[in-house]
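Priority: low. Protein: Glutamine-dependent NAD(+) synthetase. Input follows.
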Amino acid sequence: MGRKVTVAVCTLNQWALDFDGNLQRILQSIQEAKEAGASFRSGPELEICGYSCEDHFYESDTLLHCWEVLLEILISPICKDMLVDVGMPVMHRNVTYNCRVVFLNRKLLLIRPKLRLCDDGNYRETRWMTAWTKERTLEDYYLPRMISTYTGQSLVPFGDAVIATKDTCIGYEICEELWNPLSAHVPMSLDGVELIVNGTGSYMELRKAYTVVDLIKSATMKCGGCYMFSNLRGCDGQRVYFNGCSSIALNGGILNRSQQFALQEVEVVVATIDLEDIRTYRNLIRSRTLAAASSPSYPRVTIDFALSCDGDMKLPSYEPIEWNYHSPEQEIALGPACWLWDYLRRSGQGGFFLPLSGGVDSSSVASIVFSMCHLVVNSVQKGDSQVLSDVRKIVCDPDYIPRDPQELCNRLLTTCYMGSENSSVETRSRAGALAKQIGSYHTNICIDVAVSAVLGIFTSISGLVPKFASRGGSARESLALQNIQARLRMVLAYLFAQLMLWARNRSGGLLVLGSSNVDEALRGYMTKYDCSSADINPIGGISKTDLKSFLGYARTRFNLPILSEIVSAPPTAELEPLSAGKLTQTDEEDMGMTYVELNEFGRLRKKNLCGPYSMFCKLIHTWQGHCTPEQVAEKVKHFFRCYAINRHKMTVLTPSYHAETYSPDDNRFDHRPFLYNVKWAWQFRAIDDQLQRLTAGSDDGQGKVSTGRAVSGPVAANSQGLPPGQGSSRSSIPGVLTKVLNTDSNKGVVVSETEDTYTRQHHFLYVCGKDTLGESSDPRTLVHIS
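Result:
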């Protein structure tokens, strides 16, 4: 009997409910594994139907079609004399489970259901599946007649068991079971299981790749054995990007791995291992052998098959390799680019349309599309026939061969600078320079005519002409004038996206790309239904800080020198009139907080699960070097007011590439109300109480916070979120001017107008009482909160 086995793990770019395509990719992976000499092939989680079927898992059609696809795989001659497992949902006794189905030579061996389901982050597995709770227990599963006809079987074991071959023992974990404290690989390894197999659907987040690698290495270092990890890759119909990295590990070292980001639909990774290396490694850990001696046994499904062969002495065993991780800048350059490619080719559209303003955000999107063009050209040059077929369909040219990223970008990306009388010469110049360097099909338009036409309709009805604040208008007038510019750009973007290919004598339409970042979404610093509204957004899950770093990387990587100038320019929306041709507004001044502070707020709110009070308690220590507790309190309150007022925008947020752990995406990742009491009265009162104790020197905590420095400007809000007194005062938050309009002594409420020098979306709120907010048209009783 031999001692060396060659095993294969697979990275597949599956698509939810694409049963034909999923079947072909599975068969291709089995074929490639066999050609590489593997006797055992494992694949990703739910690979037959695709991971992101979501509520389609409720449909009996989905379960039926999975069995039909499994039958096609079972009877395929490609699978002869190879042990294979695939992932699919299976209903057992009226309960649907997420399963691995194991078969050999047209015989089903085991259906192994998932023991631990994942419900954090973007996962909602318990909505559709149920965890198998009968550990080390098997039941009979009655096979569908379509399967029995070909296999001659009526029953197959269903449950928590392992496969015993002539030469080794194989056990299964499924995705979350590796992350769970009660991981199945520990008791299985103590029971003599030597190959641990995990089919997973793990998605990409910035700086996350090391997590699964550390888990796999730790599992095999502690328990010994071989770990086979297969993951999906690509966009299968949702906001996440499954990030590959399928790998094979042995005794704490990685033997082989697949790419994290690639356009390749099927990637098979193999490794040859010596089973005796597992046995000697485990036997040397004496505390482990003692635990194994008393470990309860798993049910074994014994098969008359060996993974090794007698003449295997000439087979070299694989040695451990070093895992080289991508930097965050590289992850931004590659991940969203691959996600965009999957979306584009599967949507049937002819390219992208991007309003290019010359700022960091839209320039980041343009650079990511350019990165995608590089990936396409490189894949075609390497002989990827699927990529070549896809790009020919997109450009509607059956003979087209992309040879240059700039030339391909000209076909796939249309950019447009939508200028107005408020736009500067500098931003127009930067947009044009970037478009030229990446090769996009670029146009310049002026939206002033459209703005005047829309305002003319209002004037014809009201007899009033709204003015900017800098020209004597009120805050309401100024914000309305800014928002109409932003919203008209969205309307024009969709017009151009539908007709630009027609104008260029090509069929099809273009996907509109959004360019708002995760920080702006969190703060609500965007106009509802402006250019943040689009078909998809590749940077909606990425912070401003990371985008600036990415542009620095892209400048060198893609030879785009204009990006240096774009990064160094102050971020601005250019919606207010210029002063002597110069900008009069910047994003950070308008928001009342820096992007660095916003990044910190976001992480504390989502990752650390902090409400206003907990966030204040943490930040008085984190920021004690440059902020007094009074300043911290004011900043925290300002953030939560803005967040609460603008949360409704998340309900219509453009589907975005998920990359950041503090994303406010309302669809799946961040479930919260979109109607808040914006005063946060109880929470802010708790901050004020703690601040009073700190100021009085009565705080008995371990960390002493200095309160000696003066606050730069009066605190603009009390615990009810309202100004502390009458008159005009300048808040210590830049760009915020508070004007008290009226005090109602009967209601005990100060009614005020808080005027931001710029806010893209605004709310006028009427204070009816201490706890009630409603709309009003009476300017004497308005609270303007941005």
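The first strand starts at residue 4 and ends at 12. The chain has three domains: 4-317, 329-576, 592-694.
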